[in-house]
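Changelog note: in this version the structure field was regenerated for every chain. One regenerated record is shown below for reference.
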Amino acid sequence: MTARSSIGFRSLTDEIDHDCCVTGTVPDWLSGTLIRNGPGAFEMAGSSVDHWFDGLAMLHAFTFGDGVTYRNRFVRSDAYRSARNGNFESGFATGNTTLRDRLRAFLFEKPYDNANIIAERIGDDYLALTELPRWVAFDPDTLETLGHVQYDGPEPAGNLACAHLKRDPITDELVNFETSFGRNCHYHVHSIPSATDREHICSIPVDEPAYMHSFALTPNYVVLTEFPFVVNPLDFIKPGAQGPFIENFTWKPERGTRFFVIDRRRGAVVAAPRTEAFFGFHHANAYEDDGEIVLDLETVPDATAIEVLYLDNLRDGNFGGLSGRLERFRVDPKSESVERERMYDGTALPTTSPDRWCRKHRYVYAQSPDPQMTTWPEAIAKIDTETHRAVEFADEGSYLGEPIFVPNPDGERTDDGVILTPSLDPETERSSLIVVDGESLAELARAASRTRFRSTSTVDFSPN
């Protein structure tokens, strides 16, 4: 029998724009637009993809003002146009490639552009991003696609990009890294002043590059958490047909997990300690404390979480392996030591207040599945990193998405604000955006849409 929660993994096809039915009271200070990005359609024109990460990018926007409006649009990428013609291109975990295909992709052709993971504001530009360094610009008001953006300058660049850029809220500086494959492989770390400019921070030579979905940033350091899920670059140039990109990576726990600590000002690796092997997708936040770097991130034992995200598994309700735990790592650059502390079991998509990015935080917000994750998360949690206790919000059997904390601009407490979380009701097949009080986790309001959606990540809450 198809799992009840499979509704969240069916294709969306309609693009709509409408006023939401709002119940409850939205705080007067909450104005602006929440923009989210994620896989929208998994089938089109008779062809389909195999993995959640390969669905066609769709943007969603909730605008708060005189009421709440909802709008969604597909990203009009080359991949989207190809799918409309009945040909889903090979992606993260879908399709086979020949040696000629791989050489063309790495050396000659424009990278794959199904920008379905995140979207980001860079300067005055809004861009949809994937894990390849070809971005798609869009209008934040209409969500219409504006065109491609790809760095083409003198600084080192890579074939693979990290999906989640990091922003220093004090300086508004954006930092990211890319991985280059070849005879000599590197992680290239850079600062991004604008969508078409970058400033080189550091390049790290590596023998077998790892798959890393995010990283950590503090006022003085960039930290790459290199999991032992790695690829031999020569595998990409083996003759004959191969499976999709991610199937070239191998779990090698004997390598352990390594933390590359990079001095942002000096542009140099100052430490690279290792600890036990683990895997993860998302860093919640990082900061500096008495000479140590403190990283809060969500971990899982190994890289089988990627296999769980194949659509057949998700539609059958086989979520085991996705539920993570919030852990704290203390990295001492001087002694090159790592201390590991288990903080909370049963998390997904952890976030913190944007006011606390790169600074010491107390609260982490996350989806709150049961540790065995027998269904998609039906609650979100506010986790107190000092007490390791959590307060939860649930929506009577509905499935809840990534919680985003929006601070009250006049607030004095670090939890003075609201949490915005999407909710999907499997009975009505409709979604809502719920406004939850940041301190008590009581529901304040909800804006009901006439459609369903499940986006993976949030761009930005942009004030009007």
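Spot check on this record: The helical segments are 78-84, 99-108, 304-308, 311-315. The chain has four helices and 36 strands.
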